Amino acid sequence: MEKIILYDWKPGFNKAGLNKLLRASANYSLSSAIEAVGKLLEKEIVEIELESSEHAEAFLKEALNLGVIGEIKSIKTTSITMLMQETVLSDLERVAPVFGFSSCQPLIQHYVDQGLRVDLERLKMPTMQSLISNLKYHGVDEAIIAQAVAKTYHH
Amino acid sequence: MNFDETIELKIVEEDEEAIELLAKGKKGEITIYANLFKEGNCLILKNVHLDGIGPGYSSLTELRQIAREFGKMNQVKEVIIYGFRRTTGAHVGKQPIPIRIKID
């Protein structure tokens, strides 16, 4: 997995070109592509994840030609082994090609990524962070806090 | 691109409030990307950016003409265009002034 960070643009930056590139090479929808171009124009960071380094290099080369400033950041990966119900696995194998995933592995990665982003956003909430710190300060066991957080958001 | 003649407009894609609009004239095409909102008799195009305008033509003139046609298609009395920040020309980095087009 490779991550491309776009963070600035040069005079002459081709906005429509980036819009088309994001949709053609990074599976962005039309609305997401417009949003990403808008973010970049305001010099906010746009992060794009692509599966292979070849794909990422080709994408970045084209983006640089359009007047975008950015770079590739490699994401280190490690393998894990986990038990999974066979029925879940067969469902994943059935669903993956329908939504354009080459196998169930990138689909699982996509699900994890989606869920993780949501929870990371929740953790950024100041009330949540402050509540957790306060509970820890008062000696509440971390496992109990984790259970309470999970119950609040996932049940 | 010369839009002195009639232009043909085609919605290529719609996704949530985003729209890709293709304007075809006898001498060429312009693709418009924008977020589209309708408020009463007014059509609002935000984050507008264009593709396909060749050198030597005024993008603003063509854009006004396309907006007028698009406004008629949508049966509104006014179209307001908010362009994306400029990345070319003399005012790079500036947010363009909104363009208001009254529909006849």
Write the layout of secondary structure elements.
The complex is a heterodimer of chains A (155) and B (104).
Chain A (H helix, E strand, L loop, with lengths): L1 E8 L5 H11 L4 H12 L4 E5 L2 H13 L2 E7 L11 H13 L5 H21 L1 H12 L4 H13 L1
Antiparallel strand pairs in A: 1-2, 1-3
Chain B lengths: L7 E8 L2 E8 L2 E12 L2 E10 L7 H15 L4 E6 L15 E4 L2
Parallel strand pairs in B: 4-5
Antiparallel strand pairs in B: 1-2, 2-3, 3-4, 5-6
Please characterize this protein's 3D structure:
In chain A, strands 2-1-3 form a three-stranded antiparallel β-sheet. Chain A has 155 residues and is an alpha+beta fold. The longest helix of chain A has 21 residues, at 104-124. Chain A has helices at residues 15-25, 30-41, 53-65, 86-98, 104-124, 126-137, 142-154, and strands at 2-9, 46-50, 68-74. Chain A has seven helices and three strands, in the order βααβαβαααα. Chain B has 104 residues and is mostly beta strands. Chain B is built from one helix and six strands; from the N terminus they run ββββαββ. Chain B has one helix at 59-73; strands spanning 8-15, 18-25, 28-39, 42-51, 78-83, 99-102. Chain A binds chain B through residues 9, 11-17, 19-20, 29-31, 33-34, 37-38, 41-42, 67, and chain B through 13-20, 31, 33-35, 47, 49-52, 84-85, 87-88, 92-93.
CATH architecture of the largest domain in chain A: 2-Layer Sandwich
- In round numbers, the mean pLDDT of chain A is 90
Helix segment tally of chain A: 7
Largest sheet composition of chain B? 6 strands, mixed
CATH fold category name of the largest domain in chain A: Ribosomal Protein L30, Chain: A
Question: What is the spatial order of strands in the main beta sheet of chain A?
Answer: 2-1-3
Share in helix of chain A: 55-70%
Task: Encode the helix/strand succession of chain B as letters.
Answer: EEEEHEE
Count of the separate structural domains of chain B: 1
Principal-axis shape of chain B equals globular
- Terminal CA distance of chain A reads 32 Å
Structural category of chain B is mainly beta
CATH homologous superfamily caption of the largest domain in chain A:
Ribosomal protein L7/L12, C-terminal domain/Adaptor protein ClpS
Q: Main sheet of chain B: which strands, in order across?
A: 1-2-3-4-5-6
